[in-house]
Amino acid sequence: MRKSSLKIGITCYPLIGGSGILATALGSELARRGHEVHFFSSAQPVRLDLAQPRIFFHEVIVNEYSLFTYPDYTLPLAVKMAQIGSAAELDVFHVHYAVPHATAAYLAVQMLGASAARAPKIITTLHGTDTTLLGQDPSYRPAIEHALSHSDALTTVSESLREETLATFQLAQPVEVIRNFFVPSVRLRERDEVRRELGLTNKEFLIVHISNVRPLKRVDLLLRSFAGAQSRRSLRLLILAGSSFASYEPLLDQLALRERVIVKEQVSEVEEYLDAADAGLYSSESESFGLSILETLFHGKPVVAFRVGGIPEVVIDGECGFLHPFGEIEAMAASLSSLADSPELAREMGERGRQRAETNFTADQIVPEYERLYRRVLERRPGGQVFSG
Ligand code: GMT
Predict the structure, then answer these.
(1) Can you give the residue ranges of every domain in the chain?
(2) 286: Cβ below 6 Å to ligand 1?
(3) Pocket of ligand 1 contains residue 127 by CB under 6 Å
(4) How far, in Å, is the centroid of ligand 1 from the Cα of 343?
(5) Domain 191-360, CATH
(6) Using one digit for the tens of pLDDT, what is the confidence trace for 324-342?
(7) Span 175-219, pLDDT tens digits
(8) CA 14 to chain CA centroid, nearest Å
(9) Nearest residue to 131 (alpha-carbon basis) of 141, 143, 142, 123
(10) Domains 7-183+362-384 and 191-360 share a fold
(11) Which of 38, 102, 146, 280 is the most buried (most CB within 10 A)?
């Protein structure tokens, strides 16, 4: 008999990073829909609410054995997944980001025994750099390809990443696109209050950037694009940095931007800053999707970005923002100027972005796609068994 609820194991990175945020939101939505969800990670994922019914968290302890130069995470993760997979009778392991999660899932299933009909099925969702960076590295590529080939289903978060995945790995099974989604929070503080905290007057045009400021986010091009923008209004840039901004400090001085750029590190409530802003600026050289860009659209702000990876699948150029070929900072600056000079244009584009996000990228649209995938994969179990319910 087909059971309505499933038991799902989700493996993800815990800290600020798109794949962990998406995995956490997915787990929360699945639990809200009646499924039992078990998270595996080295620490509690930042946005995970353990008070929510049907959510469980299994911490993986990274070993500190002094005989090893490098700590190992893959084996303790695989053991934890095997233990809980068996004890909680999980139906699926849904791993987010292939390295090392898909390999750990494969090992966990092997530990449960090749003939274990009860072994969870493995779904791997590729998020970006697992294909675009590590997939190009000869010391990782064969291991990733092995783990992907032993997954029961593969998904990517954009068509662009699907194409790159197919070009990178030799895969016999299909790769399905299930795009990212976002659930906006109920606003915590009013726009005016946040702008006051930032020391902004209502006349100033605030541009926001949210990222982990790793090298591929190209914060150098972000600052140069901003420095080139000119407007009748005073322009300010707010950077919400998921890791240390220290290495970019000298460039702030070099471009004489210190008075106009506000940097905040490790902000957990990014959404109230999105409400306080007037536009978003993103300068990555590679981006499979751009979850922060989607968050920016949900908050009704137009986006200026480079046309790379999956970004054009999220932002429609000329409709909810402006996209430019990678590296064209003068064009990025000109787009920022035109938005700042025309508040009406910025508002209209922002509104169209919100509509686009609400039409295409809500949990109600995307989560059922994952639920259908889980059920399809489980039908391939002997007798189509689903053990939970
Ligand atoms: O590179 C990052 O910013 C983190 C990385 C991750 O896996 O946590 O993000 C990737 O996954 C996000 C969620 O699917 C996507 O929105 C990002 O575009 C993607 N990053 C890259 O492709 C560089």
Answers:
(1) 7-183+362-384, 191-360
(2) yes
(3) yes
(4) 31
(5) 3.40.50.2000
(6) 999 999 999 999 999 999 9
(7) 999 999 999 998 679 999 999 999 999 899 999 999 999 999 999
(8) 12
(9) 141
(10) yes
(11) 102
